[in-house]
Every structure is written in structure tokens, then in C-alpha cells.
Amino acid sequence: MSRMNDFNISKEIKPVKVIAVTGGKGGVGKSNVSINLAIALCQLGNKVMLLDADLGLANVDIMLGLKTKKNLANVLDGECELKDIIIEGPHGLQIVPASSGTKNMAELSPMQHAGIIHAFNDIGHNLDFLIIDTAAGITDMVVNFIQAAQDVLAVVCDEPTSITDVYALMKVLNKEHQITRFHVLANMTKNSQEGRDLFATLSGVCSRFLDVTLNYLGAIPFDDNVRSSVKKQKAMIEAFPRSAASIALKALAKKIQRWPVPTNASGNIEFFMERLVS
Ligand SMILES: Nc1ncnc2c1ncn2[C@@H]1O[C@H](COP(=O)(O)OP(=O)(O)OP(=O)(O)O)[C@@H](O)[C@H]1O
Ligand SMILES: [Mg+2]
């Protein structure tokens, strides 16, 4: 009996907050938000993993100037283990790099499914946050990652196609996957009013046609330092910690850190992986 208790204690699972960063449209700033948010959460003392889920066009490692020899595709092919491909970014951030041409999770064999769930399960127990940088578009892969996450952070910017694309994504997620809650972050704003206006426009359409609750997370201003840091292959909040966009991203991390810890099955990394690959 006591042995059994010991076993339960050692196997106790720490809940992890799984956040998918998305936006529907390409180039709205999903990767920049994911990377800098992940590092800001590390700076606040959290254990964070960033999963580059842009499997067609991986770029988190390149944006941070990190070298990878192997990636998720090699894990799926059984050539190495997940722990072998994780690279360490700034402040202890763990990064799971993707690759061009990685197989769709839906094409994996049951053995591969089980393998990848197991692999994430082994390394995921210590995490506070798993941030997923998704690709643009509404592909099955993007939808898979989002519906497996607990929270969806939709990045929008002041372009008509950004609003229509994010609305189209929310519609699919709401009508076909019963997702009812989205966090909205305005990016590249000229002033704070622009962010609020964007949110009001999106809320207006959603309340008419969808059964969703939107939560406004605020705005990240347009900041030339974002582009400069991409060129330098450094995270902006490290290269330009005092820039306007960095300050906004750090405030965002503090806000997200206060989100309640999941107490149900969705706070379990294994549950996330099962939802992802099933
Ligand atoms: N707040 C900002 N201010 C200025 N430029 C920005 C800001 N956020 C992102 N950018 C710039 O916008 C471009 C697209 O950013 P990013 O790659 O993060 O977008 P994405 O949504 O991940 O794109 P993709 O859909 O191709 O994955 C980059 O050149 C980046 O430097
Ligand atoms: Mg990207």
C-alpha cells in the first residue's frame, strides 16, 4: 500500500498551460509574439517550452539564430528521441524545432502516435507553459494544434484581411470544434485606440454570427526593433528590452501568468498530446 502511495507521489503531474498562438493570416506576428512571450514567461521564473508547429515553414530556431541538426521529423521517423532535438534558447527556454516537410500528425501510424505521446509525456511534466507557434491558414494541422490547446491567443493587425482571416478561423473552430473562448491580441498598432477598435470590430462580427467569448489582451505597438532583432537573429525582448513592443510583451506575459492553472484533464501534457494526434 505504502509502495503504491510512493508511486502515486512520484508520478504526480504538474499542470501545464498549453497556449496556441494563431491568427489565420500570415505575417501578423505570431512567431514574434510566441518567441518573445515564451522568453518573457521564462524571465518571470516559469519553465516554458516553445513548440514550432509551423511544420511546413519552420523558423523559430532561425529567428533566434539557433542551430538544429535534427527536428520533429526525425523523432517521428524513429531516428532520435524528443529530448535529443530540444534546443535551449534564452533564459532556459526549451524549443522543439519543426522542419519543412514534417509529416502531418494525422498520417502517423498508431506506433508513432504512442511514441510521440510518450516522448512529450516524459519531458512535459516539469513545464508551466507550452506555447505553440502555429502556421498561417486553416489547415487540418493548424486546427489540430489549436483544438488540443487550452487557450487560443489570436493575433490580429489592422488589415482588412487579418480580421476576415481570423474570423474565418474562429468560425471553423467554433462551429466544428466547439471552441468558445478566444484571447485577442492586437499587433503592430499605431496607438492603443487602434487595438481597441480592432477588437470592437472583431467582437461585433463574432457576437452576431458565432457563439464565442472574446477576451481582449491588449496591443503590441508597431516597433522597428522587431525587424531589427529578426535581422540580428535575437529575441527582441533580449536585444531591445526597453523598446515599446518589449514592454508590451512583458506586460502580456504577466497577464498570462495570472491565468488560472488548469485543474482538469486538459492541464495534463499527455492529454494534450492525445488530443493532438488522435
Ligand atoms: N510589433 C511589430 N512591429 C513591427 N514589426 C513587426 C511586429 N510584429 C511582427 N513584425 C514583423 O512582421 C513580420 C511577420 O512577423 P512574424 O514572422 O512573427 O509573423 P507570423 O504571423 O509568424 O508569420 P507567418 O504566418 O509567416 O508564420 C516580420 O517581419 C516581423 O519583424
Ligand atoms: Mg510564423
Specify the overall morphology.
Answer: globular
SSE pattern, N- to C-terminal = HEHEHHHEEHEHEHEHEHHHH
* Class from helix and strand fractions: alpha/beta
Which kinds of small molecule does this entry bind, naming each only once?
A: adenosine-5'-triphosphate, magnesium ion
**Largest β sheet strand count, sense and barrel closure:** 8 strands, mixed
Number of distinct helices: 13
Portion in beta strands: 15-25%
Q: What is the radius of gyration?
A: 18 Å
Mean pLDDT: 85
Care to count the β-strands? 8
Low-pLDDT residue spans: 1-11
Distance between the termini: 35 Å
Question: Share of helix among residues?
Answer: 40-55%
Strand order, sheet with most strands: 3-4-2-5-1-6-7-8
Provide a descriptive summary of the structure in words.
The protein is α/β, with parallel strands linked by helices. The chain is 47% helix and 16% strand. The protein has 13 helices and eight strands. It has an eight-stranded mixed beta sheet, sandwiched between helices. β3 (87-88) and β4 (94-96) form a beta hairpin. α6 runs antiparallel to α13 and α7 packs antiparallel against α13 (269-277). The protein is globular and about 50 Å long. Mean pLDDT is 85; it is low at 1-11. Residues 23, 26-32, 54, 136, 187-188, 220, 222-223, 226-227, 230, 245 line the site of adenosine-5'-triphosphate.
